Amino acid sequence: MMKDTSWLSRTELLIGKDKLQKLVNSHVLVVGMGGVGSFAAEFICRSGVGAMTIVDGDVVDPSNRNRQLPALATTHGQSKADLMAERLLAINPELQLKVIKAFIRPEAVAEMMAPDYDYVVDAIDSVSPKLTLIRAAYARNLRLVSSMGAGAKLDPTRLQVTDISKTYNCPFAQHIRKQLKKYDIRNGIKVVFSPEEPIKESLMYTDGSNFKKSAYGTISYLPATFGATAASVVIRDLMEQD
């Protein structure tokens, strides 16, 4: 059955029919529906990408409302993945969407990575699951863009897309780099990061649940800008693929 792409007329006007068709034929995995991943998923959906898999095992917490797309005063306690699924299908009812309501655990990654994704967006903010996903994508030679730390920073104009080996002034990226070296991965991971000096006073420690021991303060627009930048990487790369 032919997909209705009439709603993408403005996109087609910009990129042309052939590149739009590449997006329609693509399948993108987005892991994490928080401040970065929720916006990345929405922008990827709005670009016309025809198939998506979204992953998140968390529910909306009141503290999410300052930065996360599914977080409203009316959605506390609800599944982020379910909320985003409803939103994405409202944007594109023909979207082939798979929803995985689970936290990323090492034993589940191999099964989750079985399909031949055209691109993977890593929007995980916990070290252990993030490393598991990056290593799995790297081992399978899947194209991936990974978001580094969006907390403790304020200036969206500082964001860069680069190889993880070239990141600096990002404690999260530094830790991920160090851990990846243990598996002999020193480069080849495309990331979105900010070299802005982090506001270290905004650090808080958490209870360690879901592989997360600490968190930085965040502002409304910074994670969204990370998500938009990651989505742009995916969309531009998919359009240029052979």
| SSE topology string | HHEHEHEHEHEEHEEEH
Taking the alpha carbons of the first and last residues, their distance comes to 24 Å
Backbone structural class: alpha/beta
How are the strands ordered across the major sheet?
A: 3-2-1-4-5-7-6
Bin the helical content. Answer: 25-40%
Overall body shape: globular
How many domain units? 1
SS field, number of helical segments? 8
Largest sheet: 7 strands, mixed
- What does the radius of gyration come to? 17 Å
CATH fold name: Rossmann fold
In CATH terms, the superfamily is NAD(P)-binding Rossmann-like Domain
Unreliable runs: none
Oligomer: single chain
Q: Please report the first level of CATH classification, the CATH class.
A: Alpha Beta
Q: Strand portion, in percent?
A: 15-25%
